[in-house]
Amino acid sequence: MKLSIGSDHAGYDLKKEIISFLQSKGHDVIDYGVKSPESVDYPDFALTVADSVATKKYELGILICGTGTGMAITANKVRGIRAANCLTSEMAELARSHNNANVLCMGARLIDSENAKAITEKFIATNFEAGRHELRVLKIHSLTGL
Question: What is the torsional sign of CA 57, 71, 128, 32?
Fold first, then answer.
């Protein structure tokens, strides 16, 4: 699977671990930054990853900051993105299967690396169920002025 990933300074260390984990599983991962733990503005990285998914350059995206919230809010500003901030594997599974989430957001200050790996694995392994959920996702995308 082709995946894009990005983080801010708070997510830098966890991002490196997730990249290694994904590459060990044979996934093609592009790291859009940050390249060091120096302080940065997370919206810059969230938009880059979200755009890479919205334009279908990559299948799914992963964003990591302190809580995952800022990344999710920013990524969801990009048309076609459904970013979900997940703290558990079950949240990741439901975000994919019910909401067709295409960007996973995680908080490095809230979860440990083993949990983050399990969340990531569940997110990329789960398919969208469509059916009754498809109409709801379409409704989300029909909203304007948000």
Answer: positive
